[in-house]
Amino acid sequence: MPALLKAEGLVKHYDVETGGFLRRSRVPLRAVDGVDLEIQPGETLGLVGESGCGKSTLGRVLIRLVPATAGYVEFDGADVLRLDPRALREVRRGMQIVFQDPFGALNPRMSVEETVMEPLLIHGARRSAETHAEVGRMLEMVGLPDSARHRFPHEFSGGQRQRVGIARALILRPKLVVLDEPVSALDVSVQAQIVNLLSDLQGELGLTYLFIAHDLGVVKHISTRVAVMYLGKVVEIGEKRALYAAPKHPYTQALLASVPVTHPSRRKRGGQARLAGDIPTALAPPSGCRFHTRCPHVMDVCRTEEPAMRAAGPDHQAACHLLPA
Fold it and tell me: What is the homologous superfamily of the domain 5-94+174-250 according to CATH?
């Protein structure tokens, strides 16, 4: 089956001014620095990594919310990065995004009905009994009463506001939804409700998700496959069970070792080193393997040669010199 979304060599650099008043210079901040990725129809690809690794930027570049510096993105057969504005608008019906901050993502001056209906109006629909009915159906699908349509964002809890954001993203019946840390701003009890809602909606509407998060427990619950990102690059990707059971990249191993466990008997003994040190700056990433400054298994080759993605098992790859070529 062909991939719904495919990215090759995707790059996003931002020009940043550095230096003092008399010696200013512009250097690239390498937010995304050569990413290859495929998302299959109907799956949930979890994208994890530390804050600042570029995962949110990658999600936005994939759907062209921000322009790419270089690379190729194909969505449902369309060359996304080279579409003219009119063609891009049509393709955008098929790919939507749910943002991290449910309050900041909603216009405080617009009612829920106006917010959820807005994508329909942008894409040519007119206010009518049918569009009002469609808003009601969508609110019901996300677990909000019909009376919510006349209320404003400040009248809702964080979880309810996120449900409004989900309704707005799904009103056009997209094929792909980028979920940019959709539960990280919510209480733990509400997180489970939203994750379960997203799973139910995926089954009901046949959605494909890119689920961006730093909570490895949530990612394990909802994802089909998982991609691990470090300093602008994907360093490991694979089927969820295989990656969690036997991570191959030292960075992935350290991330999983840092997850709190509920019982001492579930702790892995004598194995994985916990992650130490700070992530290097994307203004001057390390040479060779970008993780070598924090890796407990660093070798000389790691400091000079960037590792390519290598097979680590069925549907499992990692970019590490420890793996056989």
Answer: P-loop containing nucleotide triphosphate hydrolases (3.40.50.300)
